[in-house]
Amino acid sequence: MSRRTRSRPTVPVEAGRPLRLEKALPFLLLVSAVCLFFWEIITGRGFLWEDILYQYYPFTFHLLRSLKSFSLPLWNPYMFGGMPFLADIQTQVFYPLNWLFVPFFTPDQRHVFWLVEFKCILHIFVGAISFYLLMRDQGHSSWSGLIAALSFAFGGFMVGHLIHLTIVSTFAWFPLVLLFFLRALRHGTMSAAAGGAVALGFANLAGHPQMSLHMVYALGLLFFVYIATNWPRERAAFLRRHVPLFLLMVVGGFALSAAAYIPACRLSGHTVRELLTYAESAEISLSPMAAITLFVPKFFGSVTGAGTDSVQYWGGPMAHFYWETALYLGIVPLLLAFYGAFASRSRMRWPFLVLAGAAILLALGRHTPLYRLAFDFLPGMDRFRIPARFVGLFGIAVAFLAGLGADALFNYEPRRPRSASFTRFLLVILASGGVFFALLASGGLNRLMPQLQNGRLYANALRQTGVSLAILVIAVLLIWIGFRRRLPASAAARVAAPLLVLLTFIDLFVFGHSFAVGTVAPEHFYPRNTIVSRLEAEKAAGPFRMNARRDNYMLLQRNEGLIWQLELLEGYTPLRLADVAAFNVPTGRRNDLMNVTYRIEVDSVHGRLEMVENPSALPRFWLADTCVVVPDRMGILSLLADSAFDYRRVPILEKEPSPRPQSWIGTANVGTVRLISRSTDRIELEADCSLPSLLMLSEVFYPEWRARVDGRPVEILRADYCLRCIPLSAGKHRVVLWYDAGPVVLGIVISALTAVGLVAVIMVGRRRSRGGGQS
């Protein structure tokens, strides 16, 4: 038999089929797959849950409402007593897609929530299409691209994190980043590097710096492994071409997102993440036992928006370990990835193999020394938790290798000895699956996993293993058909390729389609009840805060203040200000100092929750005629907790004020303060001081706030650990405080200039490409 050779490994096109339909068919298939996978969500019969409902929906609601009123939300007074909004990068203020949604905003909760759900699902589609285009750009067949795209888009990482909007929104751009990255390596053009910078910039603006960091380190690893494995042919271009293009891509991507990243970096040093330890960072590490879920994804049970579709998850101490450690990528892609790893001739085989290995070792976290080395020595790694999220990079590497394997399979050459070796490997996999099933059925795994002595858990593990074994048998059979020597390549591809694609989708659909479907509608989770109506009416009388939570009892949900524009002490974000988080003083004193006018009252005996007034709350703005200076911050908390200390009259400062307040003798009033105007980012007051006094503001201290007294800039002092204070001389004063947008403006300028530069590079590159006759 003669050896078959191809200049471009593609599956032959059927005669007479219109070329346009042939090109459009994969895209139509991916659109159909996404719609079918998320049909309950799209049609409103189910709802995304967890962090989408708790965090990202209130963020989006507040953002779209602000943008529609032509206001850029800098400060957020509705969570934790006050914190930056725009600088919290998870709010996605500068993400272009959010700005496209602004005209569609209405106060209707169900409508806005659907926009958030649509955005999540749209990024699954973006990831699928981008991965397909990545494989096609590498010269691989449409069927190969479809299998790789399905594995990436519907694999455990993307589907498991669909409830985390920013993770999905960021990581969905990585295949497109890789497309331009590999194109820049292959062709050495600035336009390709600029395209990668644009894709990376979009990913950064999507608001999950941890995923951005993973992507950049993955690009660096791929870059250096590619150069090392191709050194003889790439040596001359390494410093002259490859390094500058790599830097253009990475630096350009972050410069494009400077509008979001400059404020976010300034916020980072003031959040609880600044205090992160290695033990906290490595808390959710991938367990070695999770290797079972590569083939049997629900062996340890499952978690869904409605509870579970098997048995309650027992593979980790808490439910969120299920989605944080979700490894499953489909049995067909995993087998094809093994084949691609040793049968493909692609020069990118080794770089992605190394990426898969490094990612899985890092995901193991505290179980290997590699994550500790990364935490200690790689910049940025000490700011993030959950090493198990490196399974995202593992998934993208396996999906790429699966595409290589599918292409090698569909263009099989029978004389290659590796094909026979892989056939033996498939038989070993089948035999191993059978042995595992037999051990499980006979109770041989009970000593290793005592939980299997529970009847329900055991029955589920047996059932799930049986299903996976059946899929494995079908997958091996189809791959064997692709290997058949008596079939020409075109016939084998026509038989095996569509069936492998279909089996991949069915497998991943059964695994993950029910995970994202919750049962709680947003208007039921955030109802406009009598408490909300009463608090909304009270706002007209002046600003106040509410303490809506005590232990596990809540009158209002943690981020509900963003929906109704109510100022709460509670909130839900990992970027909480460290000062507020550490403000551990007795609850009553904290509420008084924070201007908590209403608080929760819990009757645990009868299970009743009530909202009651707090008559001892200090005003939002008031004048003090004395103070004490305590430079030691822990000493401030100790003094505030001292029952003998008069916290209502004596503020605690960290430095001497100028002018220092003078105390009245007797009971004369020190003066008055009147609120003139107030918005989220600006406060204007009028103070009338009989003697030098301290203007006390029950507003959370943050260094981006600025103040003027009678038109002159003054320093805002930190008072009572985390609040604000401005010294005033005797007399009448006009005091204005505002959130400084200078860093935001600087970031916008840098982003705009970078965008212009990158577009110019891309346009020049396209003209040169056309002039040179290149496609």
From TrEMBL:
Name the source's superkingdom: Bacteria
Q: Print the keywords alphabetically.
A: Membrane, Transmembrane, Transmembrane helix
> Any coiled-coil ranges, and where?
none
Where would you find the membrane-spanning parts of this chain?
Answer: 27-48, 112-134, 141-159, 189-207, 213-231, 243-262, 321-343, 350-368, 388-410, 422-441, 461-483, 495-516, 744-765
What name is this protein filed under? YfhO family protein
